[in-house]
Design brief:
Distance between the termini: 31 Å
Number of helices: 6
Largest sheet: none
CATH architecture: Up-down Bundle
Radius of gyration: 16 Å
Number of domains: 1
CATH superfamily: Nucleotidyltransferases  domain 2
Helix content: over 70%
């Protein structure tokens, strides 16, 4: 798979998981909504990484996105957009991924007992934001590579 195929694949995954998270709210499945929202955010982050040629084999793309930001090889307008994504990438990272699947193994709390309607609403809002911002960012990156962007 080439980088463009990887980006398209990850973005399609993110879109599908976002649609499922939306459905989960209507079905009052809070754990499932958070799980699908986390997968939306994760795959959005992986799409960004793939657009820079970074292999997105992680449940926590925030670390690699932060590393890209530190590398100084990213234009300022793109850097700013990536920085806006970081809080949601961090909030719905590895910890959420494992909690939605396994619960809290230290306290033997099942995943269905961990997530409330409020948690689902917060996760869904983060997923929507991340997906929208990722699409904008990918457009900015494509324009930059074509030489169309006037970013610093």
């Amino acid at each position: 798979m080439n980088a463009l195929d990887e980006v398209a694949y990850r973005l399609a995954l993110a879109k599908g998981f976002l649609a499922e998270a939306e459905q989960d709210v209507g079905l009052t499945r809070w754990r499932s909504c958070v799980d699908n929202a986390q997968l939306t955010v994760e795959n959005s982050g992986k799409a960004i990484l793939a657009s820079f040629g970074v292999s997105p084999k992680t449940h926590d793309p925030a670390k690699q996105v932060a590393a890209l930001l530190r590398s100084q090889s990213v234009r300022e307008n793109i850097r700013e957009q990536m920085q806006r994504l970081l809080p949601d990438l961090l909030a719905l990272g590895t910890t959420e991924h494992f909690l939605t699947d396994y619960g809290d193994e230290a306290t033997y709390t099942l995943p269905w007992d961990l997530f409330t309607q409020e948690a689902a609403a917060d996760a869904l809002a983060a997923a929507r934001r991340t997906f929208e911002q990722t699409q904008e960012l990918l457009d900015m990156i494509a324009a930059w590579r074509r030489g169309e962007s006037s970013g610093k």
